[in-house]
Write a structure and sequence with these properties.
- Chain B: Catalyzes the removal of elemental sulfur and selenium atoms from L-cysteine, L-cystine, L-selenocysteine, and L-selenocystine to produce L-alanine.
- The complex is a heterodimer of chains A (157) and B (440).
- Chain A has one domain: Sufe protein. Chain: A (Alpha-Beta Complex).
- A three-stranded antiparallel beta sheet of chain A has the order 1-2-3, with helices on one face.
- With 157 residues, chain A is an alpha+beta fold.
- Chain B has 440 residues and is α/β, with parallel strands linked by helices.
- Chain B contains 14 helices and 17 strands.
- In chain B, the strands form five sheets. In chain B, strands 4-10-9-8-7-5-6 form a seven-stranded mixed beta sheet, sandwiched between helices.
- The chains are: A alpha+beta (157), B alpha/beta (440).
- The interface between A and B is medium-sized, with 22 and 21 residues.
Chain lengths: 157, 440
């Protein structure tokens, strides 16, 4: 069933127990993103060490209000990017974006996506793609604000 | 058109009505019958409306009020006939030369038309327009339950004119607070415009138009009624309501999208400066300047939507044949069943009045521990279409301390079985998100 495909147990687990939740210091940039169609909101901070694609993501902290998909996606984001470089993080984001916007026609690369592959079912529901991307786009925006030398996401697609 | 006489009292032959709506027989999500409970967002259209548009386009399509060829004359007649029937439907002047009905792209544009035309009075050298002048020190009154379409245009109007925006707040049971000491002073001698919704698109609340009009008239303020959620569902007589302006949209009343209606008292429309300018709305054009046509043409610049007007005329005929009293009575039965059924489910909270008294058929609610977006996904999986989000009434949701809500809304084609399906769907939502015993 499609519905269970989207609401995988791993997504509901992240929703119930979000990883890295809460706003923390220190941080280099803070952004506030909303989904105007449903009112979901996320405030997200990034703390980087270094500059450019090799900068390390030291912390991603956030405060979010939203549905299970947007909340879980931000939790998985925290899992997947903290400790990695900005370049590696954007590789994951590019692959993730391709999957959730792919209308189910994109074969996800599990090696790159790790737990984020659980969101493959979202692609069947175009109305929910924005939910899945809210926290990730906030992250991309925060990195761009934190570092003038941040890479363009497109370079990693 | 098929006969649609009610069987007894509030009981309509809903199956016969449903047969007029082709879309209602389709299935969604792997073969589930569609249960369409989102008419508050947009209603479905009967064959009679679709046929009227198609017939017009296949026989008489031409640009209206232009040219003297046969098609142009037929198209103009069809367009003006629709205007006249729509006027009669809401109790406005049905006369062609004296019309009080302006066609717009949608209700949002109709409300913007009033706000922009009024602020254009500031720049008008027409003495008649001066009655609409608003400036610093003046006030505009709205309510906390407005749809963004009747709020944001007035925020912008105040920004342009320097006037101050004030509003009535909403009580915890979903009514306008009209009686507190604070509320008593909201409309005062500085008030120039009172803009408010007839029926809340979220709460279902029907506002006391008479009280608000009386207070507005006492201080000489103009009244602007958002009738988007009332005209499609109940008898509305703009003259009896005594409002100055009213706006509603075609697509919420079984008609086409791409057409909205502005009602304005004839004397006010005659004094009001134009909003959009260009072809069709002029009287005389010289390089140095222009004069403008009488209403409604003054407010219909450019080639207007035509098949949509014809379609809306057919929608009004269709609703009139059923009888708006019967439409209202039928929806009242559905609303009562939904309110009662939802309140009987643990963990469900209604946002808005809990009985059908002074209330229409928009039923918004929350399910404890489940985000509305997730709830609607499970309902959708059962074939049930509801609206989720803030329904373009963000300040109202904030007033209730909620981020978003689930809204079921009805029209004449909905059934008690569909209300029962909604209630089953809500229980399925609760089961789904508590499926391993963990309540979110």
């Amino acid at each position: 069933m499609k519905l269970e495909t989207m609401y995988q147990e791993i997504i509901l687990d992240h929703y119930r127990n979000p990883h890295g939740h809460g706003l923390r210091d220190p941080f280099d940039a803070e952004v506030h993103h909303v989904n105007p169609t449903c009112g979901d909101e996320v405030t997200l901070r990034v703390h980087l060490d270094g500059s450019g694609p090799d900068a390390k993501v030291v912390d991603v902290s956030y405060d979010a209000m939203g549905c299970s998909i947007s909340q879980a996606a931000t939790s998985v984001l925290n899992d997947l990017v903290v400790g990695r470089t900005v370049g590696e993080s954007f590789d994951v984001l590019a692959e993730y974006q391709k999957m959730v916007q792919g209308r189910g026609k994109v074969e996800p690369d599990e090696d790159v996506l790790d737990d984020a592959v659980a969101f493959a079912g979202v692609a069947a529901y175009p109305a929910r793609v924005k939910c899945a991307l809210l926290g990730w786009f906030a992250f991309k925006d925060a990195v761009a604000q934190a570092d003038d030398n941040a890479p363009e996401l497109e370079e990693h697609q | 058109m098929t006969a649609l006489a009610p069987v007894t009292g509030a009981t309509l032959d809903v199956e016969k009505i449903r047969a007029d709506f082709p879309i209602l027989s389709r299935t969604v999500r792997d073969g589930k019958p569609l249960i369409y409970l989102d008419s508050g967002a947009t209603s479905q259209r009967p064959r009679q409306v679709l046929d009227a548009e198609r017939t017009f386009l296949e026989t008489s399509n031409a640009a209206v009020h232009r040219g003297a060829h046969a098609l142009s004359e037929e198209a103009t007649d069809a367009y003006e006939s629709a205007r006249s029937r729509i006027a009669a439907f809401i109790g406005a002047d049905p006369g062609i030369e004296t019309s009080e009905i302006v066609f717009t792209k949608n209700a949002t544009e109709a409300l913007n038309l009033v706000a922009y035309s009024m602020s254009n009075a500031t720049f008008s050298d027409d003495p008649a327009a001066q009655r609409f002048r608003v400036g610093p020190g003046d006030e505009v009154v709205v309510t906390e339950m407005e749809h963004h379409a009747n709020l944001v245009p007035w925020q912008e109007f105040c920004r342009r004119t320097g006037a101050t925006l004030r509003w009535f707040s909403v009580t915890s049971d979903g009514r306008l607070d009209l009686d507190s000491a604070e509320a008593r002073s909201v409309i005062n001698e500085r008030t120039k415009v009172v803009a408010f919704t007839h029926q809340s698109n979220v709460l279902g609340t029907v506002n006391p138009v008479g009280t608000l009009v009386e207070r507005a008239k006492a201080v000489g303020a103009y009244t602007v009624l958002d009738a988007c959620q009332s005209v499609p569902h109940a008898p509305v007589d703009v003259r009896a309501l005594d409002v100055d302006f009213a706006a509603f949209s075609g697509h919420k009343m079984l008609g086409p999208s791409g057409i909205g209606v502005l009602y304005g008292r004839r004397a006010l429309l005659e004094a009001l400066p134009p909003f959009l300018t260009g072809g069709s709305m002029i009287e005389l054009v010289r390089m140095e300047g222009s004069t403008y046509a009488a209403p409604p043409a003054r407010f219909e610049a450019g080639v207007p939507m035509t098949s949509q007007a014809v379609g809306l005329g057919a929608a009004v005929d269709y609703l009139s044949e059923i009888g708006m009293e019967n439409v209202h009575a039928h929806e009242n039965v559905l609303t009562a069943a939904a309110l009662e059924g939802l309140q009987a489910i643990d963990g469900v909270t209604i946002i808005g009045p809990r009985t059908t008294e002074a209330r229409g058929g928009a039923v918004s609610f929350e399910i404890d521990g489940v985000h509305p977006h997730d709830a609607s996904q499970v309902l959708d999986d059962s074939g049930i279409a509801v609206r989720v989000g803030h329904h373009c009434a963000w300040p109202l949701h904030r007033a209730f301390g909620v981020q978003s809500s689930i809204r079921a809304s009805f029209h004449v084609y909905n059934t008690l079985d569909e209300v029962a399906a909604l209630l089953d769907g809500v229980r399925r939502v609760q089961d789904f998100f508590a499926r391993d015993g963990v309540v979110l």
